[in-house]
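Lecture 7 notes: from sequence to structure.

We start with a single chain of 551 residues. Read the sequence below before looking at the structure.
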Amino acid sequence: MKKGSDLLVEALENEGVERVFGVPGEENLDVLESLRRSTIELVLTRHEQAAAFMAATHGRLTGKPGVCLATLGPGALNFSTGAAYAHLGAMPMILITGQKAIKTAKQARFQIVDVVASMRPLTKMTRQIVSPASIPATVRDAFRVAMEERPGPVHLELPEDVAAEEIADAPLIPVHPLDQPVAPAAALDRAAALILAAKRPLVMIGAAGNRPRLVEPLSAFVRRIGVPFFNTQMGKGAVTGGSNLYLGTAALSEGDYVHEAVAAADLIVAVGHDTVEKPPFLMRSAGGPKVIHIGYQSATVEQVYHPDAEVAGDIGASVTALAERLGGKLPEQTRLLELRQRILARINDRSEEDRFPVTPQRLVHDVRAVMPEDGMVCLDNGMYKIWFARNYRTHVANTLLLDNALATMGAGLPSAMMAAILHPERRVMAVCGDGGFMMNSQELETAVRLGLNLVVLVLNDGAYGMIRWKQAVDRFPDFGMTFGNPDFVRYAEAYGARGSRVTSAEALVPTLEAAFKGGGVHLVDCPIDYSENTRVLVEELRNKVPDVDLA
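Now the structure, written as tokens:
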């Protein structure tokens, strides 16, 4: 006879799961044994948070839920940040946690917290499994909910007595395709009319436009209508950044060079904008451009985002239908495109300066130089994220992974590990500040044990740099933000990885190239100078005067 744990693992196999990430505990031992006898690989991590980040990144890159496993109490609670990361970032994921027996209570309340309740605000659905017979339907429902728009995490709690209970049979539920509703023709006609009537339309691609399945329809849409576009941070790479229609990335909410194009536009076509992201521009009640919202779901109205028209339905089908209505009918947007070279030139200013420690502009320039078009850069969270969002040009979808939703530190290394597992043929680099790196640095051991090819670039300034900069901008005293670091080269070597240290600006590219060519896990310690933050992001932008007047 089968046990509940066998049914769980068979249901996961039925969903096409190839790997489960996590740290098992006593309450997962039946599940662990079922996994051992299955086709599914257990990827043992050194902390549950890293396992959740890896599972979420699997969902982000493939569109199919990644799966992570933890025990009850402290193990389950360590999933909380990863669950929020996936929930705000719209990444499909399944979190499975153990629990003490629910039919007996031999250990009283030892280690027991209400994990289902704690996961409720962090997930799309959370459920305790109370009988083996319900497992196939529960797992099928969990994957469906996780993948439906808006995608996100689902939590299942499997008590140890339910996992161990034997059952004669419980048939698996066949997997079925998920189709999205199509936007009404009237909404598409209304949007097409607004675009045709606009003198300077501008397309913005947001986080929900950056789903793996949308790469082709979105790219075709931009090409066919010939309208300039920009993107939010999490929309970056949905349409190739090499396009001659690309105007830049909105790394700030206002006042950057790309916002000259926003100010000059009379209509913004917001494709897949998710207001969970930091606003890429701020709508005004009057005097600003009109906005059309194209999304899987209707818009979330906020003080800074209240669209004038909506097209709710499958984004791929919507933009394809709009392209049919608009193709060849729009004049070339020469007036907006006049801004393009100015915007991109200003953003790339001083990108080859040889100051040391390296400046953010030089850092982004040199990372781009060593990464092929399909190379994947996975960012942790810190001051450098703004510079990569502004300055890094993408040519292939999902090759710059950053988090502009929860914006948590500690996710960069695990997300890069997931990218390296899924794409072993590509160059993959994690870019982490020294603060964020140390939050999950123990996963270097996991990366080495898995035999990954991965370069980890650690930006060393001995501080929580973004908050320290904000503290200075707000004219607070420098307090509470600095710390000491280990010798990162020796630290990497202690885990069985290689380590290198950058000692001059001109050495950055050769050091990174050597790290990639050497294979395996290689950490590169690079000192960085963030004084450019104030010069560019405060002083220069505060004094910026628009180059052209397109009113």
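DSSP finds 22 helices and 20 strands in the chain. Keep this in mind for problem set 3.
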